[in-house]
Amino acid sequence: MKNSIYSSGLILFFLLISCTSDDVNVDDSHIVGIWKLTEWNVKTPLDLNNDGIASSNLLTEFGCLNGSALVFNDAINGTLFYSSDVGFHTGIESEDEIFNGIICSTSSERLPSLITYVKIDNTVTINNDGDLSDLTLEGNTLSMFIQDGFVAYDVNTFEISVIQDATYVFTKE
Asked: S-S: 40 plus which of 15, 58, 85, 167, CB 3.0-4.6 Å?
């Protein structure tokens, strides 16, 4: 009996020391700070401002989301701020589909959303009021893939006219 208690104690001891904090990357020193939204990428380039130049980075097409940021305050808390709500509409002009409406709803009363997060290796998972999103950390950028992250509606029928996956890229200041 004494030997089985001793053996069980040894097994428990080795199990405890084999699972160290080295198994999970808890170093948050690089993540803490302000991360500005610098890109909103889609696969197929779009010409949102109808200047004849299509771009895969939609932020170069309009400035509605300038000032949007992700802020990590400490090891688990932060904020997410989008500077406006954005909507897109298309229509037909000379038999071509064009973007004929970008709706930017900005307000000086917009407040950042409080988030919590966890960082494991190069993945940062943010919890924004129950909505979980994974971001990939590469150097000084965080990328967040969103399926169907760009949607435009026909101005007459209100049916979806353009839909694409999108990737938001935040760059550390």
From this structure: 58
